[in-house]
Amino acid sequence: MKVVVLVKQVPDTYEKRQISLDTGMLVREASENVVDEIDERVCAVAAELKNNGTATEVVSVTMGPAGADKAIRKVLALAADRAVHIVDDALAGSDMVQTARVLAAAVSDADLVLSGAASTDGAGGMVPAMMAEMLGRPHIVAADSLEIADGTVTAVANTEAEKLTLSAPTPAIVSLTEKAGEPKLPNFKAIREAKKKDITVTTAQELGLAAGPDAAYVRNVMVSAAERPPREAGVKVSGDTAATELVDFLATRHLI
């Protein structure tokens, strides 16, 4: 079984993030870019499928700038046998639909596609579902765990109301939550071997697509943006009139 892991390089969640006031997009150069944490957990699931013999090959697929190769090497050290890196200036600023089109073309021969439930930068969570629609494959959403046997993938998803056990025939797409796997730090041997593994660099055109913002049927255009104003100190009340002041404050704001 060929298993594909979708990987995204994102700004470090522990650093400050910035939005460009000119484009309305995330300024990725403002902080260190790393493998999305949820993707590391997905890699842990893929590594387990490889270790137990279910996966004969694990392939990492990334759509991103040339600088994403550092993140790809980490994934190669964690789980993947090889990687596909889609690098194309025309794809910069792609929405979820255009992203799904490109990724769907890149994973069309996979038996199982694994992804995180949502990235930590965009948090859209719809790309796997869009890919499934485009490829005509079943999609299991927000799985906390999964098992594969006899050409069927079975996953457990927990909702606010109940625990669901969902099954689908392969080829299929499964998006996983942060509960699905526990990431491990790659050892020195894995890091060294990752440097020798193959990364295939391709473009949308080589995948047979005209994709990106200019190819979108509709697109959002930012017309204005401004920085969030600094926080101002709150109103303080004290002394004998504190209770009255507090009541007046709440009343003028229709809170009581």
Automatic annotation (TrEMBL):
Which Gene Ontology terms cover its molecular function?
Answer: electron transfer activity
Could you give one GO CC term from the UniProt record?
cytosol
The UniProt keywords, alphabetically, are: Electron transport, Transport
Entry keyword annotation includes Hydrolase: no
Instruction: Report the residue ranges that make up the Electron transfer flavoprotein alpha/beta-subunit N-terminal domain in this protein.
Output: 23-211
Cross-referenced Gene3D superfamilies: HUPs
Listed cofactors? FAD
Function field:
The electron transfer flavoprotein serves as a specific electron acceptor for other dehydrogenases. It transfers the electrons to the main respiratory chain via ETF-ubiquinone oxidoreductase (ETF dehydrogenase).
Q: Which family does it belong to?
A: Belongs to the ETF beta-subunit/FixA family.
Assembly behavior = Heterodimer of an alpha and a beta subunit.
Q: What is this protein called?
A: Electron transfer flavoprotein subunit beta/FixA family protein
